[in-house]
Specification:
Layout lengths: L5 H26 L5 H24 L9 H24 L1 H4 L4 H43 L23 H17 L6 H8 L11 H18 L8 H9 L7 H6 L4 H21 L20 H16 L11 H19 L6 H54 L3
Helix pairs in contact: 1-2, 1-3, 2-3, 2-12, 3-11, 3-14, 5-6, 5-9, 5-11, 5-14, 6-7, 6-13, 9-11, 13-14
């Protein structure tokens, strides 16, 4: 799947909510009398619920081998951005109602909930950077055992160039060191600072006999921390998810009536926000991952069934024997771990001089590892752009909403 310019996609998403809701307004105005404003209101709210349901049904329709893949996670963020835009349009359309109690309290609670998601976005971007460091280790392996040009593994005829050079002990030593560093880095770390120092030793010049090399290593480590760990050392993804879901309750009948039905989309968007942040934490490495977040959504909501189905499938994935200790459930991370482990076991078993049969087997494993590396290259950058867009969209939405509430409480 080729990387796309997400800025163009984002602009299209920003227009979806406006265009759809404007179309529905025109349809209702054409059908209803000028005095019947409740019909338009009901159409907007029901349409929002239906759109959320349809999008989550689409997400839930993927087979198991596509769930939690990079394309699926990007599609999940597309869904969030679409829902967020339509929700924003609903609030703008009913600004007067939003500023009245109890709606003002409900929307203020939602904005506070959304602020907590910003830290999750930061942590996910850290996790993406962490995956990039693993990708660099993969490139060392590919450079050692495959074509020397890791960015161009095929000739003009589409055939691999791997067979143009023989494999010796030096290449295997270099590849095995990178594979060991990768295996250590991909552990589900409890002490992130110690493991971070360990897995970065291959990026600094670690020479105990040279104080200059030590200083260089410490500077490299500090630079990596400054790039990757933008959340505090005590921050916990599990606790942050619990905070996002705290007091997320189904609106009571009197709240629905008092808000003219607007309490329902606020609850819907709060649930979507919680699920999307939870799925990101499930997929991408981040500090103190924890997936034990309570999801309770009454089946009366049309989007409840697909959302709960996805939650159940992701939880089942996390409980699989080969995924229990994974640092992230992203499909490509699993493929990276599996391919690198198989190649490492093969590298440990080889004897020199290398037989033709063993060399063919090594080449095949390296080719598989190269395919995983290519998938990471194609998917990580657009995913990071989407996470950044989610972050900025949440900030903009909250700023606009609080400004509206402020003007309502302090009319000029």
């Amino acid at each position: 799947m080729p990387a796309t310019d997400y800025q163009g996609s984002s602009a299209q998403l920003a227009n979806i909510g406006r265009s759809l809701l404007s179309l529905r307004r025109d349809q209702v105005h054409a059908m209803e009398s000028p005095n019947d404003g409740s019909a338009l209101h009901d159409v907007e709210l029901e349409s929002f619920q239906r759109q959320v349901a349809d999008r989550f049904l689409d997400l839930a329709s993927v087979p198991t081998d596509e769930l939690l893949s990079l394309p699926w996670v990007r599609k999940l963020l597309d869904v969030f951005l679409c829902c967020q835009e339509e929700f924003r349009v609903i609030l703008v359309s009913h600004k007067a109602q939003v500023m009245k109690p109890p709606m003002d309290r409900l929307i203020a609670d939602f904005y506070e909930r959304s602020v907590k998601a910003l830290d999750v976005c930061n942590a996910i971007r850290d996790g993406i950077e962490q995956i990039r460091q693993w990708q660099k280790l993969l490139e060392i392996v590919l450079c050692a055992l495959g074509d020397s040009d890791v960015n161009n593994n095929s000739n003009h005829n589409g055939k691999s160039n791997c067979y143009q050079r023989s494999l010796g002990e030096g290449q295997f030593r270099r590849a095995k060191k990178a594979l060991v560093d990768l295996a250590i880095g991909m552990l589900d770390e409890k002490d992130s600072s110690q493991a971070l120092a360990h897995r970065n030793r291959s990026f600094g010049r670690n020479n105990n006999s040279s104080s200059t090399s030590k200083d260089h290593h410490h500077r490299s480590l500090g630079h990596f921390r400054s790039l990757s760990w933008s959340v505090s050392r005590s921050w916990s993804a599990a606790r942050q998810l619990q905070a996002i879901g705290n007091n997320l309750a189904v609106p009571r009948g009197n709240e629905v009536a008092a808000t003219n039905g607007l309490a329902t989309p606020v609850y819907t968007m709060g649930s979507v926000l919680l699920f999307v942040m939870w799925a990101l934490v499930a997929a991408i490495p981040c500090q103190d991952r924890g997936l034990q977040v309570h999801f309770y959504v009454p089946r009366q909501f049309s989007w409840a069934a697909p959302l709960l189905s996805l939650h159940e499938r992701i939880m089942e994935e996390s409980k699989k024997r080969n995924r229990k200790n994974a640092c992230g459930l992203l499909r490509e991370i699993y493929q990276m771990e599996k391919c690198s482990r198989l190649l490492g076991e093969l590298a440990d078993s080889v004897q020199f001089p290398l037989s033709e049969e063993k060399e063919r087997e090594v080449r095949q494993r390296v080719k598989q590892l190269g395919q995983v590396c290519d998938a990471m290259k194609e998917g990580l950058e657009p995913l990071e752009r989407q996470v950044r867009e989610v972050f900025h969209r949440i900030v903009r939405s909250r700023t606009e909403g609080l400004d509206s509430l402020g003007r309502g409480n302090n009319p000029e």
